[in-house]
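Readers of this paper often ask what the protein records in our data store actually look like. Below, we set out a record of this kind in full and without editing:
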Amino acid sequence: MRHEQLDEIRTTTLSKVICRNTGLTSIPSKAFRINGNPTLSCSGVSDIDYNKWKCGWSIWESWTQCVNFLRFRLRTCRRHKPCAANICTGNAFQVEACGFLTRANIPRIRFNIRSFELLLSQQQNINGTVNLSDAQNALRNLATH
């Protein structure tokens, strides 16, 4: 079981289980404590986030800052038992141009995008993920060449 799955399970309390599975509208926040126990409204009880158990690509992370007219974002291939081995297809990254674009710098930017995509493809590991700091370093190195 992965860390994020365990964290999600740890947010579950007996009071939340009772709220989700009965017709109660409120319950003591600590189900077995009688005195000095605030009431929990069952309408505000969140359900377990089952996305933590889904296989496949995560949602895209935020775009990075613009460096040398490029920015990128990453996603992670979530593979855990019983996921199929080839659950994620495509790249773990997206690259796009950013900043003040002029007709003069567009060919250079296109070249940089292709170069950066190639670098990220080479860094993409067997699990279909790219390390964020490695990708940022690759972009900085590209900017100095």
Remarks:
- Residues 56-144 form one domain.
- Strands lie at 26-28, 39-41, 56-57, 70-74, 77-78, 93-97.
- The first helix runs from residue 3 to 10.
